[in-house]
Amino acid sequence: MSDRLASDADDVTSHRARLARSGGTRLPCLRIPEEAALSAGEEIRLVLDGDQRHATVTSDSKGLLVGGAYDDRKRMREAGAGGDAENRLVEWAREHDRGPGDPVDLDEIDPGYLYGLRVPGERAVYTVTKRPDKGLQDIADSLYDE
To answer: Following DSSP, what letter does each residue of 23-76 receive, concatenated?
Structure first.
């Protein structure tokens, strides 16, 4: 069973973040604020307009960032290996007329696992799902690596 949680609920911590340019491209990526409970290499769920997407936190000389959000873990990993999966973060930025340098609100719903992205001043309601069982996740990861 999942619960619903609004972005303005007491259990949600909101951070002001910014979109930035991804490497040498003009595509937007999400610059993670220092106060967010994240570190490089973590895989997170990022909610964009109600849809949970999969993303990997990376780092560069300026700090932590998310370069893309994908429909599932397989597409996320394929994109990281140079694949051509649809980057839902880029789509979200275009749909909301957001580009590099623009502020966004990053909602910490379940620190280290579930985050939401929204335009500042807008309210969102998130569906909170349980984290995957660690043992089952390890099995799934081992099958992917083979």
So the answer is: TTSS-EEEEPPTTSS--TT-EEEEEETTEEEEEEEEEETTEEEE---BSSHHHH
φ, ψ (nearest 5 deg) of residue 21: -85, 140
- Spell out the residues 6+ positions from residue 135 whose beta carbon is closer than 8 angstroms to its own: none
* CA–centroid distance for 107 within its chain: 10
CB 24 within 8 A of CB 97: no
Per residue in 6-46, pLDDT (tens digit) is: 999 999 999 999 999 877 777 899 999 999 989 999 999 99
Look up tokens 């620190």; give the residue: 111
Query: Residue 79 carries which DSSP code?
Result: H
**Residue 144: other Cβ atoms inside 10 A:** 10
pLDDT at 44: 96
**pTM: predicted TM-score of the whole model, two decimal places:** 0.87
- The Cα 82–Cα 63 span in angstroms is 22
